[in-house]
Specification:
about 170 residues; 4-stranded antiparallel beta sheet; single chain; alpha+beta
Length: about 170
């Protein structure tokens, strides 16, 4: 006997993943093939840059793109540059504004990150380099820290704002 699909109450928040896709990828191996001739041990210094872009496609439907750029150096010289734009289309209904922003900036990138990690590792190894596994990222914590800083900046700017006196 088939189970009936459970339908959430009318105003309960719902979250759905409509699609996850690779939007763009770039790999630049700056110092090859000479780099492979070196006898030095592989000790990369990795600079990781994260960026999230959110586009509203229609009511309750959002395209979230997580861009991860790796600038990899050894001995202060560029070795490779890797950039992955992993995206997803998400449906979020009945969310309060704060909860919607938290989900789009925290939860959605958290879902996309394992895909980015897999693509970067694959590109790096196919480029002839030892695998680099990106550490997990707590996007919720990053989002809340940014919100905290923005709130503090807003509070400080209001306290330091010039006052205007008017004659009556």
């Amino acid at each position: 006997m088939p189970k009936d699909k459970q339908v959430p109450p009318p105003n309960q928040p719902t979250f759905q993943i409509q699609n996850i896709y690779l939007k763009d990828v770039s790999f630049e191996s700056v110092r090859t093939p000479g780099f492979f001739q070196q006898k030095k041990a592989w000790q990369p210094v990795i600079n990781v840059n994260l960026n999230t872009k959110i586009d509203k496609l229609e009511d309750n439907v959002f395209d979230v793109t997580l861009t991860v750029t790796l600038d990899i150096k050894q001995d202060d010289k560029a070795v490779m540059l890797v950039e992955v734009k992993q995206a997803g289309v998400f449906v979020l209904k009945n969310f309060a504004t704060d909860a919607l922003n938290a989900a789009l900036n925290g939860h959605c990138p958290t879902i996309l990150f394992p895909y980015v990690r897999a693509v970067t590792t694959d590109m790096i190894t196919k480029g002839g380099f030892p695998a680099i596994m990106l550490d997990p990222v707590n996007f919720d914590a990053i989002y809340y820290e940014q919100q905290k800083r923005q709130s503090a900046n807003t509070k400080n700017s209001k306290q330091n704002a010039p006052t205007t006196k008017t004659k009556q």
